[in-house]
Design brief:
The protein is of the alpha/beta class and 234 residues long. It has a domain of 96 residues: TATA-Binding Protein. It has 10 helices and 7 strands. The strands form 2 sheets. A 5-stranded mixed β-sheet has the order 3-4-5-6-7, covered by helices on one side. It has a two-stranded antiparallel ribbon with strand order 1-2. Helix 3 runs antiparallel to helix 5 and helix 8 crosses helix 9. The termini are far apart. This is Ulp1 protease family, carboxy-terminal domain protein.
Length: 234
């Protein structure tokens, strides 16, 4: 299997659409931690876009969204969005990784591109980092993260990562990582502690230690085996 084929296979493993999530689990998450969302309160542009999709797209249609190189620091590619995935967004239901990536594209175009913000922030691809991928392809995830961090090894930069956790309840969390300061900010809408996911924590700790070694950074003995994790209330 070629490297390109392996990458595609691994990426598909991490796609939210391929991860079975029972409706009961979704309902538990929403009932326990979230207020019901009403589509009546959606902005007018969302309703207009929904009407346009209803008219112009068949159920089997897809739309390709160009993801330029600067968004995730990788080669330009096309993100494919199906009509079903668009309705996930319109109806405030559980969304997949492609929808998240397209939203990141929007944030990149509106707040990052053509500004000085790229010196301070970067996005990591949720196609390449998820709990599924950490469990199945640890070396793949580690290599990707270290490579992205080393591009800015002499800059204090925050890396933003939407991260999908598929069990016991499927949901998205948000990481903001400062590799040089070795601080990981963790935001979970279900209020779960990061210690609930030991493989995830171990991977992120290992990545920052490998990054530290690659840039020959010196740290105190107290800091050597301790990466700072900060749980942010959301």
């Amino acid at each position: 299997m070629s490297h390109a084929q392996k990458s595609k296979e691994v990426n598909n493993k991490g796609r939210h659409s391929n991860i079975p999530i029972t409706k009961q689990r979704q309902d538990i998450a929403k009932t326990k931690h979230q207020k019901p969302n009403s589509t009546k309160c959606r902005p007018s542009w969302v309703l207009a876009l929904k009407s346009l999709v209803e008219v112009q797209m068949e159920n089997s249609d897809t739309r390709q969204i160009t993801m330029e190189e600067g968004i995730f620091g990788e080669e330009q590619y096309n993100e494919e969005i199906t009509k079903e995935q668009m309705y996930e967004f319109f109806n405030n239901t559980e969304i997949g990784v492609s929808v998240v990536c397209v939203y990141i594209r929007y944030l990149y175009e509106k707040f990052v591109r053509d500004t000085d913000v790229p010196r301070k922030f970067s996005f990591l691809s949720p196609h390449r980092i998820s709990l599924v991928l950490i469990e199945a392809e640890q070396e793949f995830v580690k290599a990707y993260m270290v490579k992205e961090f080393l591009k800015y090894k002499d800059e204090h930069k925050l890396f933003i990562l939407p991260f999908y956790i598929h069990k016991p309840i499927g949901h998205w969390v948000l990481f903001v990582i400062n590799p040089i300061s070795e601080i990981i900010y963790y935001m979970d809408p279900l209020l779960n502690d990061y210690m609930n996911y030991p493989k995830m924590k171990s991977m992120f700790d290992t990545v920052l230690k490998v990054f530290r070694a690659a840039r020959n950074a010196q740290v105190s003995k107290n800091k050597f085996n301790n990466i700072s994790w900060v749980r942010v209330q959301v």
